[in-house]
Protein backbone atom coordinates (compact mmCIF):
# COMPACT_ATOMS: atom_id res chain seq x y z
CA UNK A 1 0.00 0.00 0.00
CA UNK A 2 1.29 3.45 -0.91
CA UNK A 3 0.05 6.50 0.94
CA UNK A 4 0.24 9.99 -0.47
CA UNK A 5 -1.36 13.36 -0.25
CA UNK A 6 -3.78 14.99 -2.69
CA UNK A 7 -2.19 18.24 -3.81
CA UNK A 8 -5.54 19.81 -4.72
CA UNK A 9 -7.72 19.06 -1.72
CA UNK A 10 -5.28 18.10 1.02
CA UNK A 11 -6.79 14.63 1.42
CA UNK A 12 -4.79 11.52 2.27
CA UNK A 13 -5.05 8.85 -0.41
CA UNK A 14 -3.90 5.26 -0.86
CA UNK A 15 -2.55 3.49 -3.91
CA UNK A 16 -3.46 -0.17 -3.61
CA UNK A 17 -1.75 -2.72 -5.83
CA UNK A 18 -3.10 -6.20 -6.48
CA UNK A 19 0.41 -7.53 -7.03
CA UNK A 20 0.34 -6.78 -10.75
CA UNK A 21 0.50 -3.51 -12.66
CA UNK A 22 -3.03 -2.42 -11.71
CA UNK A 23 -3.21 0.30 -9.08
CA UNK A 24 -6.26 2.14 -7.84
CA UNK A 25 -6.39 5.36 -5.83
CA UNK A 26 -8.68 5.50 -2.82
CA UNK A 27 -9.69 8.50 -0.74
CA UNK A 28 -12.60 9.62 1.39
CA UNK A 29 -13.76 12.03 -1.33
CA UNK A 30 -13.30 12.80 -4.98
CA UNK A 31 -9.94 14.27 -5.87
CA UNK A 32 -7.79 15.56 -8.69
CA UNK A 33 -4.06 16.17 -8.88
CA UNK A 34 -2.93 13.13 -6.90
CA UNK A 35 0.52 12.10 -8.02
CA UNK A 36 2.00 8.81 -6.89
CA UNK A 37 5.49 9.70 -8.17
CA UNK A 38 6.01 6.23 -9.58
CA UNK A 39 4.65 4.71 -6.37
CA UNK A 40 8.04 5.11 -4.67
CA UNK A 41 8.02 5.79 -0.95
CA UNK A 42 10.67 7.63 1.03
CA UNK A 43 11.31 7.55 4.73
CA UNK A 44 11.44 10.89 6.52
CA UNK A 45 12.64 11.76 10.00
CA UNK A 46 10.48 14.35 11.76
CA UNK A 47 12.18 15.54 14.93
CA UNK A 48 12.52 18.31 17.45
CA UNK A 49 15.29 19.74 19.54
CA UNK A 50 14.43 19.76 23.25
CA UNK A 51 15.36 23.46 23.47
CA UNK A 52 12.56 24.27 20.98
CA UNK A 53 9.90 23.05 23.43
CA UNK A 54 10.06 26.08 25.70
CA UNK A 55 8.78 26.59 29.21
CA UNK A 56 5.17 25.61 29.84
CA UNK A 57 2.97 24.55 32.74
CA UNK A 58 2.37 20.90 33.59
CA UNK A 59 -1.25 21.37 32.55
CA UNK A 60 -0.17 22.68 29.14
CA UNK A 61 2.09 19.64 28.58
CA UNK A 62 -0.69 17.30 29.73
CA UNK A 63 -3.00 18.86 27.13
CA UNK A 64 -0.54 18.17 24.29
CA UNK A 65 -0.17 14.40 24.85
CA UNK A 66 -3.62 13.41 23.58
CA UNK A 67 -3.19 15.67 20.55
CA UNK A 68 0.18 14.12 19.63
CA UNK A 69 -1.14 10.58 20.19
CA UNK A 70 -4.06 11.39 17.87
CA UNK A 71 -1.62 12.41 15.11
CA UNK A 72 0.30 9.15 15.59
CA UNK A 73 -3.02 7.26 15.35
CA UNK A 74 -3.77 9.16 12.12
CA UNK A 75 -0.32 8.24 10.78
CA UNK A 76 -1.00 4.58 11.53
CA UNK A 77 -4.42 4.73 9.89
CA UNK A 78 -2.89 6.36 6.80
CA UNK A 79 -0.18 3.68 6.61
CA UNK A 80 2.77 6.09 6.92
CA UNK A 81 3.79 5.35 10.52
CA UNK A 82 7.12 3.56 11.08
CA UNK A 83 8.08 4.65 14.62
CA UNK A 84 7.67 7.60 16.97
CA UNK A 85 8.72 8.46 20.48
CA UNK A 86 9.99 11.03 22.91
CA UNK A 87 13.40 10.70 24.52
CA UNK A 88 14.43 11.01 28.14
CA UNK A 89 14.79 14.73 28.79
CA UNK A 90 18.04 14.54 30.81
CA UNK A 91 20.93 14.28 28.33
CA UNK A 92 23.17 13.00 31.14
CA UNK A 93 21.16 9.76 31.01
CA UNK A 94 22.66 9.08 27.56
CA UNK A 95 25.77 7.03 26.92
CA UNK A 96 28.15 6.97 23.98
CA UNK A 97 29.95 4.27 22.03
CA UNK A 98 33.13 5.33 20.21
CA UNK A 99 35.48 3.17 18.15
CA UNK A 100 37.28 5.96 16.28
CA UNK A 101 40.49 5.36 18.25
CA UNK A 102 40.63 1.70 17.18
CA UNK A 103 39.22 0.40 20.46
CA UNK A 104 35.55 0.47 21.35
CA UNK A 105 34.89 2.66 24.38
CA UNK A 106 31.65 3.40 26.18
CA UNK A 107 31.23 6.56 28.19
CA UNK A 108 28.37 7.82 30.32
CA UNK A 109 26.66 11.01 29.22
CA UNK A 110 26.34 12.58 25.80
CA UNK A 111 29.19 12.30 23.31
CA UNK A 112 29.40 16.11 23.23
CA UNK A 113 27.80 18.19 25.94
CA UNK A 114 25.64 20.80 24.28
CA UNK A 115 22.59 22.78 25.44
CA UNK A 116 20.62 21.58 22.39
CA UNK A 117 19.79 17.90 22.04
CA UNK A 118 17.23 15.65 20.39
CA UNK A 119 13.92 15.57 22.27
CA UNK A 120 11.83 13.20 20.18
CA UNK A 121 11.13 12.02 16.67
CA UNK A 122 8.90 10.16 14.26
CA UNK A 123 9.88 8.12 11.23
CA UNK A 124 7.32 8.02 8.44
CA UNK A 125 7.19 6.32 5.05
CA UNK A 126 5.65 8.97 2.80
CA UNK A 127 5.03 9.22 -0.92
CA UNK A 128 6.74 12.58 -1.31
CA UNK A 129 7.92 15.76 0.37
CA UNK A 130 4.43 17.23 0.32
CA UNK A 131 3.11 14.30 2.36
CA UNK A 132 6.07 14.61 4.78
CA UNK A 133 5.28 18.32 5.20
CA UNK A 134 1.67 17.46 5.93
CA UNK A 135 2.60 15.08 8.77
CA UNK A 136 5.29 17.40 10.17
CA UNK A 137 2.72 20.20 10.25
CA UNK A 138 0.22 18.04 12.08
CA UNK A 139 2.87 17.12 14.67
CA UNK A 140 3.97 20.74 15.08
CA UNK A 141 0.37 21.83 15.70
CA UNK A 142 -0.30 18.98 18.13
CA UNK A 143 2.94 19.33 20.10
CA UNK A 144 3.04 23.11 20.10
CA UNK A 145 6.68 23.44 19.07
CA UNK A 146 8.65 23.33 15.79
CA UNK A 147 9.49 20.12 13.97
CA UNK A 148 12.34 19.63 11.51
CA UNK A 149 12.17 17.13 8.66
CA UNK A 150 14.97 15.24 6.93
CA UNK A 151 14.67 12.61 4.24
CA UNK A 152 16.61 9.37 4.62
CA UNK A 153 18.99 8.57 1.79
CA UNK A 154 17.56 6.02 -0.65
Structural description of this entry:
This protein has 154 residues and is an alpha+beta fold. The chain has a single domain, classed as 2-Layer Sandwich (Alpha-Beta Plaits), CATH 3.30.70. It is 23% helix and 32% strand. The chain is built from 2 helices and 9 strands; from the N terminus they run ββββαββββαβ. The protein has helices at residues 58-78, 129-143, and strands at residues 2-5, 12-17, 23-26, 42-49, 81-86, 95-98, 105-108, 118-126, 148-151. The strands form 3 sheets. It has a 4-stranded antiparallel sheet, covered by helices on one side. Strands 1-2-3 form a 3-stranded antiparallel sheet. β2 (12-17) and β3 form a beta hairpin. α1 (58-78) packs antiparallel against α2 (129-143). The model is unreliable at 1-11, 15-25 and 27-38 (pLDDT under 50).
Amino acid sequence: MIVGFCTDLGLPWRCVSNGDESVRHETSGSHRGCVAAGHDMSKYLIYFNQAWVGEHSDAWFASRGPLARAVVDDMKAAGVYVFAGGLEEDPLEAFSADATGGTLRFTDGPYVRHPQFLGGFAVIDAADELAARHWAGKLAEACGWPQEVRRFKP
